[in-house]
Specification:
Largest sheet of chain A: 2 strands, antiparallel
CATH class of the largest domain in chain B: Mainly Alpha
Distance between the termini of chain A: 47 Å
Structural class of chain B: mainly alpha
Radius of gyration of chain A: 26 Å
Shape of chain B: globular
Strand content of chain A: under 5%
Distance between the termini of chain B: 47 Å
Number of domains of chain A: 2
CATH superfamily of the largest domain in chain A: MetI-like
Number of strands of chain B: 0
Oligomer: heterodimer
Strand order of the largest sheet of chain A: 1-2
Number of strands of chain A: 2
CATH topology of the largest domain in chain A: MetI-like fold
Largest interface: A-B, 94 and 99 residues
CATH superfamily of the largest domain in chain B: MetI-like
Helix content of chain A: over 70%
Number of helices of chain B: 14
Structural class of chain A: mainly alpha
Chain lengths: 306, 275
């Protein structure tokens, strides 16, 4: 009895020293996160209720003024629309196309080597930086000398003004982002497809289900979690995207392809309206956080997938 | 018979789609060796007799490539070191020591993972100005380290939670300190998760445009992606230079990808799924 009390005492002594050491371990990470993430996040909320026009200048409290002025600034609703179009357009295209490619890559008709080579080839654009992809596609879309129009001309079609046509330019930017981001979705889909038990597919085949039936009644429902993950991660990435669409279209024509992230940068660096920029930042953070929370809830529930 | 037929058709469909996907890459890689007129007139033809390294030598000189490479390399390596050391220490505390503080910290870290950098950009620029690090590579290093930390802590914590408790107990009986346990027992086991971490954070830092464009003076302290973009802006119609530039800026990552493909895919997917 006395022994066990002593043991417990020494254990709690050890535990206490462990907690102390642990706190020391935490200090560098906590310091970095607090100074460079938490404090800026608090500041962005504070700035959004104030007016501030340069790095050194004092703030003046304006209440909700920034949030009220924001929708009246030039081109605001066009940019909201451009952002939505870009986010939803690229998400839908990326997810649908990646699913088709992943199905083809997973097919039992492919041998091991060509499957791996194809997978690496489809993944490759993901490792290129946003600015590299932007420069590449901007050059390809150029009206007079770009490769896309040269190919169109050689096929006898009329060249298209990819970079300055309302509507079409949105599509052009989306295509570039699809090109650079499909790889990630494909890999996630492939992992999902491989987690479908083969017994299930065999059982369906024995019961006489055709390819189409297997696809709609077994593969699609089994892939629901991967589809959710891909939709959420791709849309978050699209809402955050900055340099790739900017380099391709510069937001032109008008404001029709200018994204909200680019507007934040503009308020911060070109027009020095820190208050307005911060108000817009707060809105964007809320949108992305909302999507991410859905993602976390979904992932918690389906932890077994990854 | 019908099966072989289907097999061939689906293989060719996939191969065709892959070719379409790779046309842009083919276009810029061969374009980097061509003269401007050839890029415009014969964009997709391969004629070795008319190709040269001229674009590369020119871009190399004009882009200040060595400096940009040095700066990007410095930022990437130092930031990764900070991320790995701070991340594994914090992950160890959260995963192995039970106290409310660590649980609260972990929840905050998870929440910070979802915050987009661009949302905090304006106050970060103000902050970096205030602490006198504007235009210094160190400001860039600290920002990259901090913003890559939450996800690394998440990865390290998850990995260390999966290790058995008995190892620690035995080490304590042998008189090892807590720091000794971290250093001698856990650290050597962390190689796979460190690799995932390095690749995920490393690609992001290497490819970064926004942070260095906002916090550095691009003329005096260029990083690779900013240098490439400015170089392109200067010679908008000289496609060959731009292609040579983007090849040189991407080459280190591409070479690593060829050798560490599996880790790359794992690292980036982990980032997409959890980040």
């Amino acid at each position: 009895m006395a022994k066990s009390v002593a043991a417990r005492k020494s254990l709690s002594g050890l535990e206490r020293s462990r907690v102390r050491t642990g706190l020391v371990f935490l200090i560098p990470a906590a310091l970095l996160c607090i100074v460079f993430i938490v404090i800026p996040l608090i500041s962005v909320v504070v700035y959004s209720f104030n007016e501030k026009s340069s790095v050194g200048s004092a703030m003046t409290y304006v209440g909700l003024e920034n949030f009220k002025t924001l929708p009246t600034t030039e081109g605001f609703w066009q940019m909201v629309w451009a952002t939505m179009l870009f986010a939803f357009g690229s998400t839908i295209l990326i997810v649908v196309l990646s699913f088709i490619v992943a199905m083809a890559l997973d097919s039992k008709r492919l041998d091991y080597i060509s499957r791996n080579v194809f997978r690496a080839m489809w993944f490759f654009p993901c490792i290129l930086s946003g600015s590299v992809v932007g420069i590449l596609w901007r050059i390809m879309y150029t009206y007079n000398n770009g490769v896309i129009n040269s190919v169109l001309k050689s096929l006898g079609a009329t060249p298209v003004n990819w970079l300055e046509t309302y509507g079409l330019t949105n599509f052009a930017v989306i295509i570039a982002s699809v090109w650079s981001q499909m790889g990630l979705c494909i890999v996630i889909f492939l992992a999902g497809l491989q987690s479908i038990p083969t017994e299930l597919l065999e059982a369906a085949a024995i019961d006489g289900a055709g390819h189409g039936q297997v696809r709609t009644h077994i593969i699609l429902p089994m892939m629901a979690p991967s589809i959710t993950i891909n939709v959420l991660t791709t849309s978050i990435a699209a809402f955050k995207m900055y340099e790739l669409p900017w380099i391709i279209s510069k937001g032109l024509p008008g404001y029709s392809t200018r994204l909200l992230t680019q507007r934040i940068h503009f308020f911060g660096f070109e027009s020095s309206k820190f208050g307005l920029g911060s108000a817009l930042s707060v809105i964007l953070i809320l949108v992305i956080t909302a999507i991410s929370l859905i993602q976390l809830v979904v992932l918690r529930r389906r932890e077994d997938i990854y | 018979m019908e099966k072989t037929w289907k097999r061939i058709v689906s293989w060719f469909a996939l191969a065709l789609a892959t070719v379409v996907l790779w046309i842009p890459i083919y276009y810029f890689v061969i374009g980097a060796f061509k003269k401007r007129t050839d890029i415009v007139k014969h964009p997709l033809t391969l004629d070795f007799s008319r190709m040269s390294f001229d674009n590369f030598t020119y871009a190399f000189k004009k882009m200040n490539l060595f400096k940009a490479l040095g700066n990007t390399g410095f930022i990437t390596v130092i930031a990764l070191l900070i991320v790995i050391i701070c991340g594994s220490l914090a992950g160890f505390a959260i995963a192995r020591i039970h106290h409310k503080v660590f649980r609260v910290f972990y929840t905050v870290v998870i929440a910070l993972m979802v915050v987009p950098f661009i949302g905090a950009l304006i106050p970060i620029v103000v902050l970096i100005h205030r602490i006198g690090l504007y235009g210094s590579l160190w400001g860039n290093v600290l920002i990259q380290a901090a913003w890559n930390l939450p996800f690394s802590i998440f990865l390290f914590t998850g990995f260390m939670q999966s290790l058995p408790k008995e190892m620690e107990d035995a080490a304590y009986i042998d008189g090892c300190s807590t720091f000794g346990i971290y250093l001698r027992i856990f650290l050597p086991l962390l190689k796979p998760v460190t690799a995932t971490c390095c690749i995920r954070a490393g690609i992001g830092i290497w490819n970064d445009y926004l942070v260095s464009n906002s916090l550095l003076n691009s003329a005096r302290q260029p990083t690779l992606m900013v240098a490439v973009y400015q170089f392109f802006g200067q010679y908008v119609s000289e496609y060959g230079y731009a292609f040579a530039g983007i090849i040189m800026a991407s080459l280190p990552i591409v070479i690593m990808f060829l050798f560490l493909q599996k880790y790359f895919i794992k690292g980036l997917v982990a980032g997409a799924v959890k980040g």
